[in-house]
Amino acid sequence: MSATYLMPTYNRQPISFNRGSGSWLYTKDETPYLDALTGIAVCGLGHCHPKVTEAIQQQAATLVHTSNLFGIDWQERAGEALCHAAQMDSVFFANSGTEANEAALKLARLYANQQGFKRPKGIVMEHSFHGRTLLSLSATANPKAREGFYTLDEDFIRVPFGDIAAIEQAAQDHDDICAVFVEPIQGEGGLNTAANGFTYLEQLQAVCDSHNWLFMLDEVQTGNGRTGKYFAYQHSNARPDVLTTAKGLGNGFPVGACMVRGRANGLFGAGSHGSTYGGTPLASRVVHSVYEVLADGSIMDNAVTEGQFIRESMVDALGQYGVSARGAGMMIGIALPEEMDCSSLVDRARDEQKLIINVTGSHVIRLLPPLNMSRNESSQVVERLVNLLKPSF
Ligand SMILES: Cc1ncc(COP(=O)(O)O)c(C=O)c1O
User: Which of 47, 54, 106, 290 is the most buried (most CB within 10 A)?
Assistant: First the structure.
């Protein structure tokens, strides 16, 4: 690529796409690439889903923005739909995952403030990722993302993901904890699931309830059908006090949401939080269109079936070489033997197999395909991955 005026915040791959449709991305010369990444878990309904495109087109021609100084009919409708899907009481619309999380973390501070805490702490996890604004970044574990930013480390206690005993220990060691903030499955940090699966969330809620802490879930990546339920926590009997989401919420249109329930409801009042853009008529109508496509559950059922198919097929083909699979629905981790050099896998998958993937945690292939991928396309994901990997064993 020639000289660029863009700040070098990303190591970009030497390719760009001209258009997308369903599970496929196309370069200018119309070469098709099978997309098992969907813009990092964003286009869950596939690229340019007709219902979402129609919503964008119609609303763009009607009214794009008025500000939150006025009633916004589509925001009301999207809010009702989303709270219904998430079983939450009310929602604040933001423009990204990190902003949704910033709202959640600010809520935790208000909650603590109400109880007279001077400088409360939140419990977060090793290998977590919550975004790039300063409070979200401080909750994030990734050392590369944090380096040099004077993160607010005194505000957080970090414990191993999946380790309830470590949280009980923190409760004994500190009397100023106000919340636990956790991803149901860790996406950026290696596609990590807790050893006891979603039961972990029930245990977390029980600890939070017993200490009167807020139980807060970051479903920025796991939400909107990605794991086969509308929200991943719905695989369990747990109920969060605060729930954030983004990514699949707008299927590529930038939007985020922070939802609250019960004791977390009513903490924000007029003027205590806000966003010029949050929940514009355009963004809200898009959110509503995504909800309408997901609501009957069939696409989430497809995510369960196809995700299971991909995981099982990969283990059938390569389990003998030490390859294992994890995740839920269409949030899939294919763990390769630790000694395997995975540094060129993303490039080779793209160039040799015309398959778009991601590698996380050094040796885990991360697949985030569209939730509505067909069996034929899922089979192609498996076939292309096996073709890529088999010669290395
Ligand atoms: C779990 C989680 N939280 C927060 C974020 C940040 O979202 P955004 O990039 O939209 O700010 C991400 C992004 O990868 C994420 O995976």
Answer: 290
For the Cβ of 101 lying below 6 angstroms from any atom of ligand 1, the answer is yes
User: pTM score, two decimals?
Assistant: 0.98
Question: pLDDT tens across 313-347, in order?
Answer: 999 999 999 999 999 999 999 999 999 888 899 99
Best of 98, 140, 331 for a ligand 1 pocket test (most atoms within 8 Å of beta carbon): 98
Using the mean position of ligand 1's atoms as its centre, give its distance from the Cα of residue 219 in Å: 9
Q: Which residues of 247-272 are buried (b: 16+ CB within 10 A; e: fewer)?
A: bbbbbbbbbbbbbbbeebeebbeeee
Q: Which residue, by CA, sits nearest to atom 3 of ligand 1? A: 130
Q: Which CATH number fits domain 19-49+297-392: 3.30.1490.10, 3.20.20.140, 3.10.20.90, 3.90.1150.10?
A: 3.90.1150.10
CATH architecture assigned to 63-294: 3-Layer(aba) Sandwich (3.40)
* 246 CB within 6 A, ligand 1: yes
β-partners of residue 324 are: 335
Do 19-49+297-392 and 63-294 agree at the fold level?
no
Residue 207: burial class (beta carbons within 10 Å; 0-12, 13-18, 19+): middle
Question: Domain residues of the chain, as ranges?
Answer: 19-49+297-392, 63-294
What's residue 2's pLDDT? Answer: 62
- Give the model confidence (pLDDT) of 272-294 as tens digits: 999 999 999 999 999 999 999 99
pLDDT at residue number 156 = 98
Residues of the chain with pLDDT under 50: none
